[in-house]
Amino acid sequence: MKTKLITLQPLDTFFFGGENTFGEGEGANYFAASNLLPQQTTLLGMLRYLLFNEAKREYGVSADTEGYIGKESFRADSVNQSFGKIHSLSPVFIKHSPSGTKNSVSLFPPPFYLNYKREVMQLYAYPQTSVFLGYANEWQEAKLASRYDPKEGSLTDCWLGDDGEFYKVDNLFQSSMRVGITKNHLDEMDNQGFYKQVSYRMNNAIFAFFASFEDNFDPTNLDEKIVTLGGEKSTFILRIHATTETYNTLAESVYSKFEYPDDRLVLLTSDTYVESEVYEHCQFAITDTVDFRNIHTPSKTKNYSAMSRGESAENLYKSGKYNLLKRGSVLFPKSIVEPNEEDSLTAIQHQIEQAANFAKIGYNHFITFTNS
Description:
Number of strands: 23
Strand content: 35-45%
Largest sheet: 9 strands, antiparallel
Order of helices and strands: EEHHEEEEEEEHEEEEEHEEEEEEEEHHE
Number of helices: 6
Helix content: 10-25%
Shape: globular
Low-confidence stretches: none
Oligomer: single chain
Mean pLDDT: 83
Protein backbone atom coordinates (compact mmCIF):
# COMPACT_ATOMS: atom_id res chain seq x y z
CA MET A 1 0.00 0.00 0.00
CA LYS A 2 1.26 3.49 -0.88
CA THR A 3 0.17 6.39 1.31
CA LYS A 4 0.58 9.95 0.07
CA LEU A 5 -0.30 13.37 1.41
CA ILE A 6 -2.48 15.18 -1.11
CA THR A 7 -2.89 18.97 -1.01
CA LEU A 8 -5.41 21.14 -2.84
CA GLN A 9 -4.51 24.78 -3.42
CA PRO A 10 -7.49 26.95 -4.46
CA LEU A 11 -6.80 29.07 -7.54
CA ASP A 12 -9.60 31.50 -6.67
CA THR A 13 -12.71 31.53 -4.54
CA PHE A 14 -14.40 28.18 -3.92
CA PHE A 15 -17.93 27.03 -3.19
CA PHE A 16 -18.78 23.69 -1.57
CA GLY A 17 -22.51 23.11 -1.50
CA GLY A 18 -24.53 21.29 1.14
CA GLU A 19 -28.20 20.92 2.01
CA ASN A 20 -28.83 24.68 1.92
CA THR A 21 -28.04 25.50 -1.69
CA PHE A 22 -30.28 27.31 -4.14
CA GLY A 23 -32.36 24.26 -5.13
CA GLU A 24 -35.44 24.55 -7.29
CA GLY A 25 -39.24 24.55 -7.02
CA GLU A 26 -40.63 24.56 -3.47
CA GLY A 27 -37.15 23.91 -2.09
CA ALA A 28 -35.61 26.95 -3.77
CA ASN A 29 -33.54 29.37 -1.67
CA TYR A 30 -32.30 32.82 -2.60
CA PHE A 31 -29.28 32.55 -0.28
CA ALA A 32 -26.53 29.92 -0.32
CA ALA A 33 -23.25 29.86 1.60
CA SER A 34 -20.35 27.53 0.94
CA ASN A 35 -19.16 24.99 3.48
CA LEU A 36 -15.61 25.62 4.62
CA LEU A 37 -14.45 22.08 3.81
CA PRO A 38 -15.16 19.75 0.89
CA GLN A 39 -17.22 16.67 1.65
CA GLN A 40 -15.27 13.40 1.69
CA THR A 41 -17.34 12.03 -1.19
CA THR A 42 -16.23 15.08 -3.21
CA LEU A 43 -12.59 14.12 -2.67
CA LEU A 44 -13.32 10.50 -3.56
CA GLY A 45 -15.14 11.56 -6.72
CA MET A 46 -12.24 13.78 -7.72
CA LEU A 47 -9.73 10.92 -7.36
CA ARG A 48 -11.99 8.45 -9.18
CA TYR A 49 -12.30 10.90 -12.09
CA LEU A 50 -8.51 11.35 -12.26
CA LEU A 51 -7.90 7.60 -12.17
CA PHE A 52 -10.58 7.04 -14.81
CA ASN A 53 -8.65 9.38 -17.11
CA GLU A 54 -5.38 7.63 -16.21
CA ALA A 55 -6.87 4.29 -17.25
CA LYS A 56 -8.09 5.73 -20.56
CA ARG A 57 -4.74 7.42 -21.20
CA GLU A 58 -2.77 4.22 -20.59
CA TYR A 59 -5.04 1.60 -22.16
CA GLY A 60 -7.39 3.56 -24.44
CA VAL A 61 -10.96 2.44 -25.11
CA SER A 62 -10.21 -1.09 -23.85
CA ALA A 63 -9.26 0.19 -20.38
CA ASP A 64 -10.50 -1.75 -17.36
CA THR A 65 -11.90 1.32 -15.63
CA GLU A 66 -13.61 -0.75 -12.94
CA GLY A 67 -10.21 -2.05 -11.87
CA TYR A 68 -9.05 1.55 -11.49
CA ILE A 69 -12.03 3.22 -9.80
CA GLY A 70 -14.45 0.48 -8.72
CA LYS A 71 -17.91 -0.33 -9.96
CA GLU A 72 -19.84 2.67 -8.62
CA SER A 73 -19.64 5.79 -6.45
CA PHE A 74 -19.98 5.71 -2.67
CA ARG A 75 -23.14 4.22 -1.23
CA ALA A 76 -23.95 4.80 2.42
CA ASP A 77 -25.94 1.57 2.57
CA SER A 78 -23.07 -0.63 1.32
CA VAL A 79 -20.92 -2.62 3.70
CA ASN A 80 -17.47 -2.63 2.11
CA GLN A 81 -17.15 -1.16 -1.38
CA SER A 82 -14.08 -1.38 -3.58
CA PHE A 83 -12.82 1.77 -5.30
CA GLY A 84 -10.22 0.05 -7.47
CA LYS A 85 -6.73 1.46 -6.99
CA ILE A 86 -7.97 3.78 -4.22
CA HIS A 87 -7.72 1.96 -0.90
CA SER A 88 -8.74 4.65 1.59
CA LEU A 89 -8.88 8.39 2.36
CA SER A 90 -8.35 10.31 5.57
CA PRO A 91 -10.53 13.18 6.75
CA VAL A 92 -9.62 16.50 5.20
CA PHE A 93 -7.72 19.07 7.27
CA ILE A 94 -5.84 22.34 6.65
CA LYS A 95 -2.18 23.13 6.10
CA HIS A 96 -1.40 26.74 7.01
CA SER A 97 1.79 28.71 6.40
CA PRO A 98 1.77 31.73 8.73
CA SER A 99 2.98 34.94 7.07
CA GLY A 100 6.74 35.21 6.92
CA THR A 101 7.37 31.50 7.50
CA LYS A 102 8.19 28.61 5.19
CA ASN A 103 7.03 25.84 7.52
CA SER A 104 3.41 24.76 7.47
CA VAL A 105 1.18 23.99 10.45
CA SER A 106 -1.47 21.27 10.39
CA LEU A 107 -4.81 22.57 11.64
CA PHE A 108 -7.77 20.66 13.09
CA PRO A 109 -11.16 21.88 14.34
CA PRO A 110 -11.46 22.13 18.15
CA PRO A 111 -13.07 19.42 20.29
CA PHE A 112 -16.44 20.35 21.76
CA TYR A 113 -15.06 20.17 25.31
CA LEU A 114 -13.20 23.47 24.74
CA ASN A 115 -15.46 26.42 25.58
CA TYR A 116 -15.50 29.79 23.85
CA LYS A 117 -12.82 31.03 26.28
CA ARG A 118 -10.54 28.14 25.19
CA GLU A 119 -10.99 26.46 28.59
CA VAL A 120 -11.49 22.72 29.05
CA MET A 121 -14.91 21.81 30.43
CA GLN A 122 -14.96 19.38 33.35
CA LEU A 123 -17.65 16.81 34.11
CA TYR A 124 -19.08 16.72 37.60
CA ALA A 125 -21.95 14.94 39.31
CA TYR A 126 -24.90 17.18 40.21
CA PRO A 127 -25.47 16.61 43.97
CA GLN A 128 -28.27 14.21 44.94
CA THR A 129 -29.80 14.28 41.46
CA SER A 130 -30.58 11.47 39.04
CA VAL A 131 -32.06 11.42 35.54
CA PHE A 132 -34.22 8.70 34.01
CA LEU A 133 -32.88 7.36 30.71
CA GLY A 134 -35.86 6.14 28.72
CA TYR A 135 -33.87 4.16 26.13
CA ALA A 136 -32.10 2.22 28.90
CA ASN A 137 -35.09 2.16 31.30
CA GLU A 138 -32.87 3.14 34.21
CA TRP A 139 -31.97 5.98 36.55
CA GLN A 140 -28.47 7.42 36.30
CA GLU A 141 -26.48 9.96 38.27
CA ALA A 142 -26.89 13.39 36.67
CA LYS A 143 -23.75 14.89 35.13
CA LEU A 144 -23.07 18.48 34.13
CA ALA A 145 -20.16 20.28 32.49
CA SER A 146 -18.46 23.10 34.33
CA ARG A 147 -17.17 26.18 32.46
CA TYR A 148 -20.01 25.79 29.97
CA ASP A 149 -22.18 28.74 28.97
CA PRO A 150 -25.17 27.59 26.87
CA LYS A 151 -25.42 31.04 25.31
CA GLU A 152 -21.86 30.79 23.99
CA GLY A 153 -21.38 27.04 23.56
CA SER A 154 -18.14 25.41 22.50
CA LEU A 155 -15.16 27.02 20.78
CA THR A 156 -15.94 27.54 17.09
CA ASP A 157 -13.94 30.58 15.92
CA CYS A 158 -10.49 28.93 16.08
CA TRP A 159 -8.73 25.84 14.79
CA LEU A 160 -5.94 24.05 16.66
CA GLY A 161 -2.42 23.74 15.26
CA ASP A 162 0.06 20.93 15.78
CA ASP A 163 2.31 23.64 17.22
CA GLY A 164 -0.12 24.08 20.15
CA GLU A 165 -1.41 27.45 18.94
CA PHE A 166 -4.93 28.65 18.13
CA TYR A 167 -5.66 30.00 14.64
CA LYS A 168 -8.67 32.23 13.99
CA VAL A 169 -11.03 30.94 11.32
CA ASP A 170 -11.53 34.48 9.99
CA ASN A 171 -7.80 34.70 9.31
CA LEU A 172 -7.83 31.43 7.35
CA PHE A 173 -10.97 31.98 5.26
CA GLN A 174 -12.10 35.21 3.62
CA SER A 175 -15.71 35.37 2.46
CA SER A 176 -16.72 36.71 -0.95
CA MET A 177 -20.36 37.60 -1.63
CA ARG A 178 -22.00 37.62 -5.03
CA VAL A 179 -25.45 39.14 -5.53
CA GLY A 180 -27.41 38.89 -8.76
CA ILE A 181 -30.57 37.97 -10.61
CA THR A 182 -31.14 35.16 -13.08
CA LYS A 183 -32.76 35.52 -16.50
CA ASN A 184 -35.39 33.37 -18.15
CA HIS A 185 -35.15 31.67 -21.55
CA LEU A 186 -36.15 34.98 -23.24
CA ASP A 187 -33.15 36.73 -21.64
CA GLU A 188 -35.53 38.71 -19.40
CA MET A 189 -35.00 39.46 -15.73
CA ASP A 190 -36.75 36.91 -13.48
CA ASN A 191 -38.27 38.70 -10.48
CA GLN A 192 -38.14 35.42 -8.57
CA GLY A 193 -34.51 34.92 -9.50
CA PHE A 194 -32.73 37.17 -7.01
CA TYR A 195 -29.86 35.33 -5.31
CA LYS A 196 -27.02 35.87 -2.88
CA GLN A 197 -24.08 33.48 -2.80
CA VAL A 198 -21.19 33.40 -0.30
CA SER A 199 -17.96 31.77 -1.46
CA TYR A 200 -14.57 31.69 0.29
CA ARG A 201 -10.90 32.10 -0.49
CA MET A 202 -8.04 30.88 1.69
CA ASN A 203 -5.29 32.98 3.24
CA ASN A 204 -1.91 31.23 3.26
CA ALA A 205 -3.68 27.91 3.60
CA ILE A 206 -4.54 24.81 1.55
CA PHE A 207 -6.65 21.68 2.03
CA ALA A 208 -4.89 18.40 2.77
CA PHE A 209 -5.73 14.73 3.24
CA PHE A 210 -3.96 11.37 3.18
CA ALA A 211 -4.80 8.79 0.53
CA SER A 212 -3.68 5.17 0.28
CA PHE A 213 -3.37 3.47 -3.11
CA GLU A 214 -2.73 -0.07 -4.25
CA ASP A 215 0.94 -0.90 -4.79
CA ASN A 216 0.47 -1.39 -8.54
CA PHE A 217 -0.54 2.24 -9.08
CA ASP A 218 1.81 5.24 -9.12
CA PRO A 219 -0.07 8.25 -7.65
CA THR A 220 2.75 10.64 -8.57
CA ASN A 221 1.22 10.67 -12.07
CA LEU A 222 -1.50 12.86 -10.57
CA ASP A 223 0.92 15.52 -9.31
CA GLU A 224 0.35 19.14 -10.40
CA LYS A 225 -3.04 18.40 -11.95
CA ILE A 226 -5.68 21.14 -12.21
CA VAL A 227 -8.92 19.76 -10.77
CA THR A 228 -12.43 21.10 -10.28
CA LEU A 229 -14.57 20.46 -7.21
CA GLY A 230 -18.20 21.15 -6.37
CA GLY A 231 -21.20 22.20 -8.40
CA GLU A 232 -19.59 25.58 -9.13
CA LYS A 233 -16.52 23.85 -10.60
CA SER A 234 -14.06 25.60 -8.28
CA THR A 235 -10.48 25.06 -9.47
CA PHE A 236 -7.53 23.75 -7.46
CA ILE A 237 -3.96 22.57 -8.02
CA LEU A 238 -3.54 19.03 -6.73
CA ARG A 239 -0.10 18.08 -5.46
CA ILE A 240 1.22 14.72 -4.26
CA HIS A 241 3.69 14.62 -1.36
CA ALA A 242 5.71 11.78 0.14
CA THR A 243 4.90 11.33 3.83
CA THR A 244 5.72 9.21 6.87
CA GLU A 245 2.81 10.62 8.89
CA THR A 246 -0.70 9.29 9.26
CA TYR A 247 -3.88 11.19 9.96
CA ASN A 248 -4.43 9.52 13.33
CA THR A 249 -0.92 10.24 14.65
CA LEU A 250 -1.19 13.83 13.46
CA ALA A 251 -4.60 14.28 15.10
CA GLU A 252 -3.37 12.74 18.34
CA SER A 253 -0.39 15.10 18.39
CA VAL A 254 -2.80 18.06 18.16
CA TYR A 255 -5.48 17.02 20.65
CA SER A 256 -3.11 15.49 23.23
CA LYS A 257 -1.72 18.97 23.90
CA PHE A 258 -4.87 19.78 25.89
CA GLU A 259 -6.19 18.57 29.21
CA TYR A 260 -8.94 15.93 29.05
CA PRO A 261 -12.29 16.66 30.73
CA ASP A 262 -12.71 13.12 32.10
CA ASP A 263 -10.83 9.87 32.72
CA ARG A 264 -12.16 8.24 29.56
CA LEU A 265 -13.62 9.71 26.38
CA VAL A 266 -14.02 9.15 22.65
CA LEU A 267 -13.30 12.20 20.48
CA LEU A 268 -14.62 12.11 16.93
CA THR A 269 -11.93 13.46 14.59
CA SER A 270 -14.22 13.28 11.56
CA ASP A 271 -17.93 13.42 10.87
CA THR A 272 -19.27 10.03 11.95
CA TYR A 273 -22.18 7.78 11.02
CA VAL A 274 -23.33 5.79 14.05
CA GLU A 275 -26.62 4.39 15.26
CA SER A 276 -28.39 6.22 18.10
CA GLU A 277 -27.86 3.18 20.35
CA VAL A 278 -24.33 4.50 20.93
CA TYR A 279 -25.81 6.83 23.59
CA GLU A 280 -26.85 3.80 25.66
CA HIS A 281 -23.17 3.38 26.50
CA CYS A 282 -22.59 7.04 27.43
CA GLN A 283 -22.89 8.80 30.76
CA PHE A 284 -22.60 12.17 28.99
CA ALA A 285 -22.05 13.50 25.47
CA ILE A 286 -21.31 16.84 23.81
CA THR A 287 -22.43 16.46 20.22
CA ASP A 288 -23.78 18.23 17.18
CA THR A 289 -25.01 16.82 13.88
CA VAL A 290 -24.31 17.54 10.22
CA ASP A 291 -26.39 16.54 7.19
CA PHE A 292 -24.90 14.06 4.73
CA ARG A 293 -26.07 13.41 1.20
CA ASN A 294 -24.05 12.51 -1.88
CA ILE A 295 -24.57 12.18 -5.63
CA HIS A 296 -24.61 8.66 -7.08
CA THR A 297 -23.04 8.07 -10.48
CA PRO A 298 -24.31 4.74 -11.90
CA SER A 299 -21.90 2.83 -14.13
CA LYS A 300 -24.25 3.27 -17.12
CA THR A 301 -24.26 7.08 -16.82
CA LYS A 302 -23.50 8.92 -20.05
CA ASN A 303 -25.21 12.26 -19.39
CA TYR A 304 -23.44 13.90 -16.46
CA SER A 305 -25.58 17.05 -16.55
CA ALA A 306 -28.95 15.35 -15.96
CA MET A 307 -30.06 14.71 -12.38
CA SER A 308 -32.93 12.30 -11.69
CA ARG A 309 -35.29 13.09 -8.82
CA GLY A 310 -35.22 9.47 -7.64
CA GLU A 311 -32.88 6.50 -7.85
CA SER A 312 -31.86 5.78 -11.43
CA ALA A 313 -29.80 3.14 -13.23
CA GLU A 314 -28.61 5.58 -15.90
CA ASN A 315 -28.66 9.15 -14.56
CA LEU A 316 -27.09 10.94 -11.63
CA TYR A 317 -29.26 11.07 -8.52
CA LYS A 318 -28.97 12.21 -4.92
CA SER A 319 -28.85 9.75 -2.05
CA GLY A 320 -31.14 9.89 0.93
CA LYS A 321 -30.21 12.23 3.77
CA TYR A 322 -28.29 10.98 6.79
CA ASN A 323 -27.49 12.76 10.06
CA LEU A 324 -23.87 12.31 11.10
CA LEU A 325 -22.30 13.25 14.40
CA LYS A 326 -20.18 16.29 13.73
CA ARG A 327 -16.40 16.31 13.92
CA GLY A 328 -15.31 17.40 17.41
CA SER A 329 -18.19 15.64 19.18
CA VAL A 330 -17.23 13.90 22.43
CA LEU A 331 -18.70 10.73 23.94
CA PHE A 332 -18.08 9.90 27.61
CA PRO A 333 -18.48 6.15 28.35
CA LYS A 334 -20.27 4.92 31.44
CA SER A 335 -17.83 4.23 34.24
CA ILE A 336 -19.82 1.42 35.88
CA VAL A 337 -19.91 -1.91 34.08
CA GLU A 338 -22.64 -4.40 34.91
CA PRO A 339 -21.68 -8.10 35.26
CA ASN A 340 -21.44 -9.85 31.87
CA GLU A 341 -21.84 -6.50 30.11
CA GLU A 342 -19.43 -5.21 27.48
CA ASP A 343 -17.25 -2.34 28.66
CA SER A 344 -18.91 0.92 27.57
CA LEU A 345 -15.75 2.34 26.02
CA THR A 346 -15.27 -0.81 23.94
CA ALA A 347 -18.96 -0.80 22.98
CA ILE A 348 -18.74 2.78 21.67
CA GLN A 349 -15.67 1.91 19.63
CA HIS A 350 -17.42 -1.12 18.13
CA GLN A 351 -20.49 0.96 17.23
CA ILE A 352 -18.34 3.47 15.32
CA GLU A 353 -16.25 0.80 13.60
CA GLN A 354 -19.33 -0.99 12.24
CA ALA A 355 -19.65 1.62 9.44
CA ALA A 356 -16.49 0.41 7.69
CA ASN A 357 -17.58 1.81 4.34
CA PHE A 358 -17.77 5.31 5.82
CA ALA A 359 -14.37 4.88 7.49
CA LYS A 360 -12.80 3.90 4.16
CA ILE A 361 -13.45 7.35 2.65
CA GLY A 362 -12.57 9.49 5.67
CA TYR A 363 -15.55 9.32 8.02
CA ASN A 364 -15.82 7.51 11.39
CA HIS A 365 -12.34 8.40 12.62
CA PHE A 366 -11.91 8.80 16.36
CA ILE A 367 -9.37 8.99 19.17
CA THR A 368 -9.77 7.30 22.55
CA PHE A 369 -8.27 9.03 25.58
CA THR A 370 -7.88 7.22 28.90
CA ASN A 371 -6.10 8.32 32.06
CA SER A 372 -5.89 4.80 33.47
